[in-house]
Amino acid sequence: MSCELCGKPIVGKPVRVWIEGSQLMVCPQCSRYGSIVRPKATTRPKQIAKRRELSMGLESTVLVSNYNVLIRQARENMGLTQADLAMLIGEKESIVRRLESGRMAPTLELAKKIEKVLKIRLYEEIRQEQELPKPQGLQLTLGDVAVIKERNK
Ligand SMILES: [Zn+2]
To answer: How far is the CA of 120 from the centre of ligand 1 (A)?
Structure first.
């Protein structure tokens, strides 16, 4: 590539400059005759804001196993009848009875209402890494490698 201003082969990095209204690729020596073309900010690819990883994706909520006992104890501690609690959470009294007898597990939505009224925790957040099984597959892979090595001997 040769300089579009002086015509000499460009040694080093060619420079794109504005000279008298036109863009020229010139040698570094000639670049001082023009103004260096800078890419417009608007032409740059917009940086995509990194989305924060949603913590919900990494955690799962699990209903505590003794939810029925927790609900009954918390309700009795607050001096509420099953009918009172039912009214407070906007459900039928029969629902409260079934919840407290353990015959019905509350949905997450229902549990949230109960949690709010009775100030208890019915759903626990479990981090997924704790639930992941141990990598047993790794041992198998190592065993396979050993077999292959044996064959190649
Ligand atoms: Zn030049």
So the answer is: 78
Tokens coding 67:
């939810």
**Cα 40 to ligand 1 centroid, rounded to whole Å:** 24
Residues 31 and 61 in one domain: no
What is the maximum span of the chain, computed from C-alpha positions, in angstroms? 96
Distance from the alpha carbon of residue 24 to the mean position of ligand 1, in angstroms: 10
Radius of gyration of the chain (CA): 35
Whether the full predicted model's pTM is greater than 0.85, yes or no, is no
Give the number of domains in the chain. Answer: 2
- Centre of ligand 1 to C-alpha 102, Å, is 87
- Whether 139 is covered by a domain: the verdict is no
In the block, residue with structure tokens 């794109």: 16
Q: What is the pLDDT along the chain (153 residues), one digit of tens a residue?
A: 899 999 999 988 899 999 888 899 999 989 998 888 876 655 445 454 444 444 444 567 789 999 999 999 999 999 999 999 999 999 999 999 999 999 999 999 999 999 999 999 999 877 655 555 555 555 555 556 656 566 665
Query: 22 C-alpha to center of ligand 1: Å?
Result: 15
Q: Beta-carbon neighbour count of residue 127 at 10 Å?
A: 11
